[in-house]
Amino acid sequence: MNKTLLIKIAFVFLLLPFFMNAQGDVNQAESSEEIGKYPQFQFKGLLQARYLESFGDNVAVLGMHHSTGDVTQSSFDIKRMRVGLNTKLSEATEVVILVNLADFKSDTKGKVLENAYGKYTFNKYIALTGGQFRPAFGIEELVPVDIIKSFDFSNQYYEFGKNGWTSFQIGASATGAFDIGKIPVNYALSVLNGNGKNQEMDKDNGKQYSTRWVFELSKTHKINLGLNGGYGKVFKEKVFAVGADITSDFKLTDRFTFDLQIEYKQGTNHNLYFSLPAESRTPNVADYQMRGIYFLPNLRYVVNYKKLTSLELSCRYETFDPSYKVDSNVRQTYTPMISLEFGKAYLGRIEMGFEIDRFDRNIPDSAYYNDNLFLIQLQLRL
Questions:
Q1: CA separation (Å) from 125 to 28, 55, 142, 236, 332?
Q2: Residue 35's pLDDT band (boundaries 50, 70, 90)?
């Protein structure tokens, strides 16, 4: 019996106790009060418009270095224009759709459609999700981009997304929560194609299995410890990913709060390995491993003056190496930012700051080149 079949059998047996506990809820008839309440619809929207200016040496606003020719170093841009619909078909069943219309400004292959999934919640212990969604594998996967404490997700988030662990993926997932003694625990188990969003089918017969566990260590200060692990096969090559993260939120005074995120990830960069010509890479995919860590402190001051809700100051520091064993080139990124919030839950937001990149080695005519990018971003969300 091969290892893939054993993993699938173990996955089913792991979920079996949750299904058994869920039967009481599934078999209960709907009360007369619930009849006619569904379906329920919730429309969502997001606009992120930006002004960009690069102060790097012949580096364009999108980060590409040009040794010859004219370089566009200032530009207005629409980063995201999202439209979404959340539909609750019943108390337990929901369908979620999310598209990013800003992707039409470039080649739309593999883009535009982001969320497209259905979710059935048996009880608090287990819910099943299937379709295209963001699997839980770190802090950022569980936070919408419009309420993160920086301009965008980290470099490691996008690189692990290219390798099938994060961002929008096609597959199935089981999530839930329970207590271990006095410690609340949230879990997620996912099985994915691992080749990104909007794909006609899996690129091979291999699947990627991942899990995330979050332990609430302090409810008062919102201290949570997250542990992530993943294993799979890509074109018959074994791949893996691991990670650990911690979050906290301290109320300093009635108006001041300080929150902190720290996240570490490491894994096989099989996307890089298979993108290289066979003659220019080593025979072993395990030689190509990525790793990174970031720190994101954020200070929030509640203003509540007329339309201004709060003022936030943050500065994310990240170090990331896409291949630390072979041809290492560490990228360090500093992202200082000031944010003005209008309305509740970031209904309106104006952000200003820098993305400062420093590489161990500058590579001409590539995105691996030192840069200082200034940003002003307007965000409106529904």
A1: 17, 51, 18, 34, 40
A2: low
Q: Residue 305 region, left (φ>0) first, then alpha (ψ -120 to 50), else beta?
A: beta
Cβ-count burial of 187 within 10 angstroms (0-12 exposed, 13-18 middle, 19+ buried)? middle
Q: What is the mean pLDDT of the chain?
A: 90
The CA distance from 122 to 210, in Å, is: 21
Answer yes or no: are the C-beta atoms of 354 and 169 closer than 8 Å: no
- For the entire predicted model, the pTM comes to 0.88
Task: Tell me the sheet residues that pair with 295.
Answer: 262, 317
Task: Give pLDDT, residue 52.
Answer: 97
Q: Give 138's pLDDT tier (boundaries 50, 70, 90).
A: very high
Q: Which tokens belong to 348? A: 């309106």
What tokens does 135 get?
Answer: 């699997």
Cα 318 from Cα 316, distance rounded (Å): 6
Six token digits for residue 292 = 């990174």
The β-bridge relationship of strands 371-381 and 40-54 is antiparallel
Predicted local confidence at residue 323, as pLDDT: 97
Q: Is the dihedral of CA 269, 273, 276, 282 positive or negative?
A: positive
d(CA 45, CA 16): 38
8 pLDDT higher than 70 = no
